[in-house]
Amino acid sequence: MRIVYFVLLLLIVSCNAPTTPTANITLAQDLAGGIKDGRLLLLFHHDEKTEPRFAVSDDVTSAQVMGMDFEDYQAGNSLSFDFGSFGYPIENWQEIPAGEYWVQAFIVKHETFNRADGHVIKIPMDQWEGRQWARTPGNVYSTPKKISWDGETGLDIHIDQIIPPVAEPEDTEFIKHIKFKSKLLSDFWGRDIYLGAHVLLPRDFDKNPNEYYPLMIYHGHFPSDFGGFRTTPPDDNIEETYNARFNIYGYEKIEQQEAYDFYQKWISPDFKKFIVIEFQHANPFYDDSYAVNSQNIGPYGDAITYELIPHIEEQFRGIGDGWSRFTYGGSTGGWEALAVQVMYPKEYNGCFAACPDPIDFRAFTTVNIYEDQNAYYLNGPFRTTERVGKRNYLGHVSAMVKDMNHKELALGGTKTRSGDQWDVWQAVYSPVGEDGYPKPIWDRYSGEIDKEVANHWKENFDLRYIMERDWSKLGKDLEGKIHIYCGDMDNYYLNNAVYLTEEFLEKTSEPYYGGEVKYGDRAEHCWNGDPTQPNYITRLRYNTMYLDKIGKRLQETAPSNFNQKTWTLTK
């Protein structure tokens, strides 16, 4: 009797179970030959104005994405999407509401790397677009089409589009472009790896072959060309569209005007002469290497400091000594500016770190990776709540840490391949796992923190901890060089790590650190040190706003034969 009841129960359950839909993905014949390994994304979006591939975000308006890996695809075959794959913002396909959507299939190509550490990994490769999966040349996708989703009807999707190669920028009178093969990185990755740089030269560079210049090194995300420099006035009849980030109209005209104003200062006879460089060092994990040596990404710190920078200085008459180099940048670039100063203290003479990524991992945004057990949840005896991840200047929260990580889990899977923010932190800071991929700092689904990995992060990349641990050795070479700026309402809570770092810096002695730390009142990401102007203006003035401090530093530290009036050195 019990057996009959059990059978009947199974029949009832199976009759009520939802039917898993199918999605058959075919590739155009001329595109299929370039695909072997990769990640197949299936995207749903409610707004026809934006392609689904461009609509995945941390915001509540995000498109829906589900992803699955595949290997050894054979041209001519179709791909069947696995609806059991993890999704974001909705984890399970069964919970996607019925309705009309624009659907798109997208393939992120993986390439095989035989690294010098003996590991063979499959991962996307930058194609000089800055490791942006939705824009990577060679990735293929379908033209979005409108569907009526009921959770049962199958989908037939045809991939018929390919992203074309990037057009490289051309040299101008003031801006030159470098593409440099790094031996260190090529040896590590087992193939030719190049670094790039956009170089802004001072006025009359060709007319004064005996002049040599200090070097301003701007760190940040992958730039397609040198930004914020324009030799012509703003365009006529610019449409004054609304900029949601800054809540103003006509921001494009403001950007063009600021770029033109910078050019006019740059060529004026009383403006100090120096070289400004912006790096391109995208890699398989992100649009930026974080400019340090990493087990997973490779020796980018050494490659930039000992290969690329000397090459640029030799080609464009940089002075070529550590006292003549200054680093600055915001967000990722802010962390890099401080990191290279700390890790190569004699090679740089000052850093200006604005809104830096977490520089003390006791405040890794809102997570203390050393004491917290879980990155996603705050657990009490009677209540559990999610940990906040993103806010505005009023403190209104728009995303949780779990949401931001689950987005990357859907996009890139479990092997740190999304090309996004949390994955690159893991790629840079973590040791290599047994499978050759970065060892997770926490379980990307559950949020449980691995304390062994956390300790590796601490000893190698927690900048506050490293300075405090090694101040007796580093202090003398860092004195007067550290400048940090952050809004006290940074969207990603980055000010919390700055507070902790400032607490240490103010306690330093023999020597006292001798720099400055400043906060912007109610300023969001990325405040960079000027309380008299709004963020949307100061973010356009990185190349001029620290010059007075740099000039003072040069006066204090330059050799006696350095010409302070024109910032030149005759050899």
Key terms:
single chain; 571 residues; Rossmann fold
Quick overview of this protein structure:
The protein is α+β, with helices and mostly antiparallel strands and 571 residues long. The chain folds into three domains: 143 residues; 201 residues, Rossmann fold; 98 residues, no CATH class.
Describe the structure.
InterPro entries: AB_hydrolase_fold (IPR029058), Mycobacterial_A85_antigen (IPR050583). Keywords: Signal. This is Esterase. The protein has 14 helices and 26 strands. The protein has three domains: 20-162; 197-360 and 463-469 and 528-557, Rossmann fold (3-Layer(aba) Sandwich); 362-459, no CATH class. It is of the alpha+beta class and 571 residues long. The strands form six sheets. Strands 1, 2, 3, 4, 5, 6, 7, 8, 9 and 10 form a ten-stranded mixed β-sheet that branches. An eight-stranded mixed β-sheet has the order 11-12-16-13-19-20-25-26. The longest helix is centred in the middle third of the chain and has 17 residues, at 251-267. It has helices at 2-16, 29-32, 183-189, 251-267, 300-316, 332-343, 401-412, 421-429, 451-461, 463-478, 495-506, 535-538, 542-545, 547-557, and strands at residues 23-27, 37-45, 64-70, 79-80, 87-88, 99-114, 120-123, 140-142, 145-149, 155-162, 175-181, 194-200, 215-219, 242-243, 248-249, 275-280, 293-294, 298-299, 325-330, 351-354, 377-379, 384-386, 388-391, 397-400, 482-487, 516-520. Mean pLDDT is 93; it is low at 6-15.
